[in-house]
Amino acid sequence: MENIRKKVRSFLLGNYLFTEDESALDNDVSFLESGLVDSTGMMEVIFFIEETFSISVDDVEMVPENLDSVENLVAFVARKQGVAA
Amino acid sequence: MNPVLAFDCEKAAEEICQGIRHAMVSAIGRRGLVLGISGGIDSSVCAALAVRALGKDKVIGLLMPEQDSAPESGDLGELLAQHLGVRYETQSLSVALESLGCYQWRDDAIRELVPDYVDGNGSGNGWRNKIVIRGGMDGQINRYELVVEDPEGKRQQIRLPVKQYLQIVAATNFKQRIRKTLEYCWADRFNYAVLGTPNRLEYDQGFFVKHGDGAADIKPIAHLYKSQVYALARHLGLPDAICSSTPTTDTYSLAQGQDEFYFALPYERMDVALYAYNASWSPSRLATEIQISEEQATWVFGDIARKRKTTRYLHAAPVLLEPVPLESASPDL
């Protein structure tokens, strides 16, 4: 899971915060509530995890509980990949 | 109209007309107004208010169809212009949009998902398309789906990947931006200003194209909910065909309601939801008022908050990194 977290954070830090400063992004902050990404940004995030982790996000899985923070994303990707926590 | 939105139409109309005159003198300094007339309720009411404020000889209406426009839009636009007695011009955008690659880019993106897709180029014989929004009323993150219909009427609906979504939206945004370019051309020709036509839902929730339909010198109905705009249309005596029209985007070749593309609910209920959000109603009160579940009301409030926040930049002037004073350096100058 640490590898997933590292890739997710690197994508978000590089593309939406324009920094390598790890302290700029909290793992439990809601992307949508904080304004880090909008609905188009969420589409980009979904595309990123589908491409990077070779998973497919179903419509019913497109809920904040799966996608709307680093921790939610990491846990979701891990579940999809069958990776143990 | 829901009773919470009830208002004095005559008082509102008079205040808007006074506001237009005041703005023309104090802030704009032009001799008249140009606006695009789509045949829809917002531009029709705006045109009527502009005529009432300044006189019909100081208002120019532009009808700007393109190959995906519904034929009835032009008919309603002409009906409105003739009803008001204003000068109006019709200029098709299809050739300009074709030259800019609007249709090509859109169709290329669609064909990446639907290889058989062939656009009808406005002939009515080809495939047609639209984009719809999904998820918001089910507690899901909003997503967009492409709907295509082949010449036999068979439909396919496909979730849009971000690359194709962005290309289709970027291409179709040409339509609003070219319309605005023409409006400013006509405004410059006559030393007029451009009137923008968003209602409160569109303005508040960022349902416009930056530097497209979002650009204007004055937006006289941006404080009115859509239901109130319909009420004002009837009060102003606009033709019944306009007062009873269903709002559409008139941007895609398949008919597309605004609630299909952007808003979580049809406008009558979306108006109440936005009013309720502004008035800090509880989700349960909204749910009772517009007959949705409390859970859905919570999602709608969340959707309103997010759209307001994430579209703020659409309203914003360019960011300056240092202050640049524009007042006269000397009070004598």
Tell me about this structure.
The complex is a heterodimer of chains A (85) and B (333). Chain A has 85 residues and is an all-alpha fold. Chain A has a single domain (2-81), classed as Orthogonal Bundle (Non-ribosomal Peptide Synthetase Peptidyl Carrier Protein, Chain A). In chain A, 60% of the residues lie in helices and 0% in strands. Chain A has helices at residues 2-17, 31-34, 39-53, 64-67, 70-81. The longest helix of chain A is centred in the first third of the chain and has 16 residues, at 2-17. The mean pLDDT of chain A is 93. Chain B has 333 residues and is α/β, with parallel strands linked by helices. Chain B has one domain: Rossmann fold (3-Layer(aba) Sandwich). Chain B contains 14 helices and 7 strands. Chain B has helices at residues 9-28, 41-54, 71-84, 94-100, 102-113, 162-190, 200-205, 226-235, 240-243, 258-261, 267-278, 283-290, 294-310, 312-315; strands spanning 33-36, 59-63, 87-90, 128-134, 143-149, 155-159, 193-194. In chain B, the strands form 2 sheets. A 4-stranded parallel β-sheet of chain B has the order 3-2-1-7, sandwiched between helices. In chain B, strands 4-5-6 form a 3-stranded antiparallel β-sheet. The longest helix of chain B has 29 residues, at 162-190. The mean pLDDT of chain B is 92.
Core attributes:
heterodimer; A: 85 residues; mainly alpha; Non-ribosomal Peptide Synthetase Peptidyl Carrier Protein, Chain A; 5 helices; B: alpha/beta; Rossmann fold; 4-stranded parallel sheet; 3-stranded antiparallel sheet; 10% strand
